[in-house]
Amino acid sequence: MKKQLAYLCIIVSLLTAAFFYNGTTSADTPVVNNAEQTYQLAENAMFYLRVLKSDGTASATGTGIILSPGGTAVTAYHVVKGAERMEGVMADGTVISPVKVTKYDELKDVAVLELPSPAAMKIKDNAYSYLQVRKNAVKHGETVFALGYPLKNTNIITEGIVNTPAAEINGRSRILTSAQIASGMSGGPLMDAHGQLAGVISGSLRTMNNIHLIINNDDLRSLLPAALK
Q1: Residue 110 in contact with residue 91, Cβ under 8 Å?
Q2: Which is nearest to 79 in space by CA: 64, 97, 66, 100?
């Protein structure tokens, strides 16, 4: 009887230890999102960006990313180069205007944008949805997702990996990814599997099929307001 009781106590102790160990591990493990979950996280934090001519027609289009509830946003500079008037169109069809460039760097291909106040645009809860900028660099082989607007009212997501986190391209360090990118997605987000912004879409690499260029977060942060760095 005593032996049976001793065995029972050992089993209970082992099960209790396993429970607490598993609980700690789960709490410390970052959430990993699939493509569907990543799209849901990013959908309302990006917008279709239109550069307008004097007659109201678009001279260029791309994608913008919102990085703060107040309306700080970013895109690729080549999308807005020389723009005098811009507007954004949100996933729900809300037109955001005017959109202004507050800072840019042509070599880095980054432009920081300012959206009208969420209150002025009657955004729900007086705050834009936004993405968190990832702090650490991406790694070789890491799963990533590219999002953007190749067409108005048509935001898409593609999945790939980081081919390399740092390639020297035209004097700049760029992330290379196999996540497919179409015209109009420039300025859109490259998301990691943990729901953070891993880079900004810049374009495609003509010398390598199906390999695409991403602005890294170091270049992005160098232009952001101190509160977002």
Answers
A1: no
A2: 64
Task: List the alpha helices (DSSP H) in the chain.
Answer: 2-28, 35-42, 77-80, 217-221
User: H or E stretch including 118?
Assistant: none
- Those residues whose C-beta lies under 8 Å from the C-beta of residue 105, and which sit 6 or more positions away, are 77, 219, 222, 223
Which pLDDT tens digit goes with each residue over 121-146?
A: 999 999 999 999 999 999 999 999 99
What's the CA gap between 186 and 127, in Å, rounded?
Answer: 25
Confidence of residue 22 (pLDDT cuts 50, 70, 90): very low
Tokens of 87: 């507007």
The residue written with tokens 């080549």 in the block is 78
SS3 state at 48:
strand
CA distance 194 to 151: 27
**In the structure encoding, which two tokens stand for residue 84, read together?**
């005098």
What is the mean pLDDT of the segment spanning 16-44?
72
Alpha carbons 57 and 220: distance in angstroms, whole number: 29
pTM for the complete prediction?
Answer: 0.86
Fill in the DSSP letter of residue 20. H
CB 97 within 8 A of CB 116: yes
Residues 83 and 101 sit within 8 Å (Cβ to Cβ): yes
208 strand-pairing partners: none
In the chain, pLDDT over 70 holds for what percent of residues?
88
